[in-house]
Design a protein that fits this description.
about 300 residues, globular, alpha/beta, 7 strands, single chain, DNA polymerase, domain 1, Rossmann fold, 13 helices
Length: about 300
């Protein structure tokens, strides 16, 4: 498979720069996806080690094939907040860098994978990032009360038309696929495609976050991740919407107050205009970086 068919990683140059890699660095790509960032990182640490984590075993298999030429990578199918357990399995106590890109991979958006993340998916409606059971997006829109659906859309999608959309969702049940759902949301909002974002974007975001428990996992990941950093080690997190970015910003701020960490990005790093032009999906990305202070720091 040619690289052009893979998900395009965001801000690769900026990620490499902030990771401050050395020949023997120990690094964790906590959200490996199809391995875009990992490919660039592994090439720069030939005497080091890269631990790739992803909660979806199928996308991790894609990364494994893509990165097969590298002999310094270990793959783990798990949530990234289990990083301590994973490093323990690898007999690694501390690492030099950790990257978490919170975006959705192209793998999840491909209609043929039938996951329901795409507005044009005529087969799937799970919106699960992994293969585990439990409540999925189809359960929510087909079974939940109107009030509960509205609350989910507002809390996790910041969708200010949540009540109107929830009423339309309940009125037009049942749903077999994401395309049907997207159409109902568009009609409820009396919107047309063609703007900067799809009219159903906030609703789809809300359903995905709720189904995958994303915000709670992120909140538990950050303190665990920094605990596994060496002195001068760095944690990089790339977020794509205000709910995630707020958690990262506030968590980093509180960690800095302890005196044990230093925030390296007083303002988030964002993609260049050139990158956004080439990769429209990068336009909402924000990266924040925190560094563990060393013994010689004042």
């Amino acid at each position: 498979m040619a690289d052009i068919s893979y998900h395009v990683p965001v801000m690769t140059d900026e990620v490499i720069n902030f990771l401050n890699l050395h020949n023997d660095s120990l690094v964790v790509d906590a959200t490996c996806g199809e391995g875009g960032h990992s490919k660039s990182i592994a090439a720069l640490i030939p005497a080091g080690r890269l631990i790739c984590i992803d909660r979806n075993s199928l996308v991790l298999a894609v990364a494994g094939k893509r990165l097969a030429l590298f002999g310094n990578i270990a793959f783990h199918n798990n949530n990234f907040n289990k990083i301590s357990d994973i490093l323990s399995q690898e007999k690694i106590s501390k690492v030099d860098g950790i990257l978490a890109d919170l975006g959705i991979s192209l793998f999840h958006l491909r209609d043929e994978n039938e996951l329901g993340f795409s507005y044009t998916d005529f087969k799937g409606l799970s919106m699960r990032l992994d293969e585990k059971g439990g409540t999925d997006a189809g359960d929510i829109v087909n079974k939940f009360r109107e009030e509960d659906i509205a609350d989910i859309l507002y809390k996790y999608g910041e969708e200010y038309e949540s009540r109107k959309i929830a009423a339309a969702i309940v009125r037009n049940r049942p749903y077999k696929n994401a395309a049907e759902l997207a159409g109902v949301i568009m009609r409820a909002k009396k919107a047309r495609k063609g703007g900067k974002t799809h009219p159903a974007a906030k609703s789809f975001q809300a359903l995905r976050i709720y189904v995958n428990n994303e915000l709670q996992i992120l909140e538990s990941f950050i303190p665990t991740a920094v605990d596994n950093l060496r002195d001068k080690g760095r944690l990089l997190i790339i977020s794509y919407h205000s709910l995630e970015d707020r958690i990262v910003k506030n968590s980093f701020r509180e960690l800095e107050k302890t005196g044990g960490y230093r925030v390296l990005t007083k303002k988030p790093v964002i993609p260049s205009p050139e990158e956004i032009k080439k990769n429209r999906a990068s336009r909402s990305a924000k990266m924040r970086v925190i560094e563990k202070r060393g013994m010689d720091d004042e």
